[in-house]
Amino acid sequence: MENQNKKQADKIILTGDRPTGRLHIGHYIGSLLRRVELQNSGEYQKTFIMIADAQALTDNIENPEKVRQNIIEVALDYIACGLDPEKSVLLIQSQIPELCELTFYYMDLVTVARLQRNPTVKSEIQMRNFESSIPVGFFTYPISQAADITAFKATTVPVGDDQLPMIEQTREIVHKFNTVYAPVLVEPEALLQENEARRRLPGTDGKAKMSKSLGNCIYLADSADQVRAKIMSMFTDPLHLQVSDPGHLEGNTVFTYLDAFCTEEHFGRYLPDYANLDELKAHYQRGGLGDVKVKKFLNNIVQETLEPIRNRRKEWEKNIPAIYDILKKGSDQAREVAARTLSEVKSAMRINYFEDTELIRAQSEKFGSSFPVSD
Ligand code: TRP
Prior knowledge:
With 375 residues, this protein is mostly helical. Helices cover 56% and strands 6% of the residues. The protein has a 3-stranded parallel sheet. The chain has a two-stranded parallel sheet with strand order 4-5. α10 links the parallel β4 and β5 (189-191). The two termini are 30 Å apart. Bound molecules: tryptophan (TRP). Tryptophan (TRP) binds next to β1 and α9.
């Protein structure tokens, strides 16, 4: 028990992404930026960042090449944003076979009905028109995600709110495992982004979510010109036709982006006529402030944010083998940790026959067999 408490005191982060496309500024402001801050905070004993390729395959069965090609895109985006392979373990999910074993055993602890209630899985099934033909692997990915989290004894999982049902399900599995077998696993906690606008950055067209298929994303790898063009054509307030008209903030994407990105220092640098965002908003609502001026301000901020990321990405793009090397080293390191957990899991589940001399000794006695006395 003492051992267990000691482990709980060490905080460990695990989180990850499915490699199905390049990352965009919604990923950056909603999670990547924070991961970098957490990584650098010194508060966590370890940070594991997982490229969840096996999970991506659960709903991309026809598209393995897409997943394969996007591993490097995601890894480049991670490193460009400041995830530092010296400080964080970057790993590829499929390279940790222990995760499959854990998943298989956790399946005993979850009912079909419980999986069917998972709201994220439910809505994904609808979105993908899987209703009558749900792949079992897709249906059970929350269990595999529980393996991802528990294999590393993660205490803290920084995620978006769509992932809360996965964390909840993981906690249930941990609780059940620890009750039925032995207190081996750690109950994780979700760490949510507090800033509402950062949590759910809408697409540039004002639609609820940035998504590749809607073509409304600003990618971390976009050029400065692409970013400017996307910002200048962003959705604002359809009723704000003349500069003198009063403008509305509700659903106004440019202001939502400002809520997510801008600080008072940005005003000092780019728009010194206003002290802060409240003043700018008040002027917009009164009338007399044009969209173009606000968009230019936003463009300055986003360019300033993305430029160092883009430059770092370009540098690393010159050295792709080094990225694979980082991923290989991270996966190897992660595998050692997962193997340790798996071994504890197997002994708690009483399936560690060959390491258990006491089992063999006792059964030898029971059957009147000879038993070698080892030295
Ligand atoms: N489900 C996550 C997503 O779609 C990716 C993921 C896989 C993950 N395993 C994880 C996130 C473990 C946090 C912890 O983005």
